[in-house]
Amino acid sequence: MSTAMNFGSKTFKPRPPDKGSFPLDHFGECKPFKEKFMKCLRDNGHDNSLCRRQSKEYLECRMERQLMAKEPLEKLGYKDLVDTPTQEPES
């Protein structure tokens, strides 16, 4: 008696998740930003709400160097930290 089960001819093709899995920073391009963020966390009892600016800078570095997909910062929860364009007075 065979113990193997055949569930059809479809083959499973793994694919990475849309979010949550990022390439490693092998060349340390964003290491200074990561270290600044980690220091902020240590200095503030790991309260990440006090280190949002540092985490934003780290994510910006990763996006600029294609270590993660580019996303609008507003979509990543940094709407309040995004520089809004100044409106010029109408003439």
Automatic annotation (TrEMBL):
PROSITE patterns: CHCH
One protein family per Pfam: CHCH
Major subcellular location class: cytoplasm
UniProt keyword list: Cytoplasm, Disulfide bond
Residue ranges annotated for the CHCH domain, each copy included: 30-64
Region listing for Disordered, in residue ranges: 1-23
Origin: domain of life: Eukaryota
A single GO BP: mitochondrial respiratory chain complex IV assembly
Alphabetized InterPro entries for the sequence: CHCH, COX19, Cys_alpha_HP_mot_SF
GO-annotated cellular components: mitochondrial intermembrane space
SUPFAM superfamilies, alphabetized: Cysteine alpha-hairpin motif
Compartments where located: Cytoplasm
Family (UniProt): Belongs to the COX19 family.
Protein's name in the database: Cytochrome c oxidase assembly protein COX19
Organism: Synaphobranchus kaupii (Kaup's arrowtooth eel)
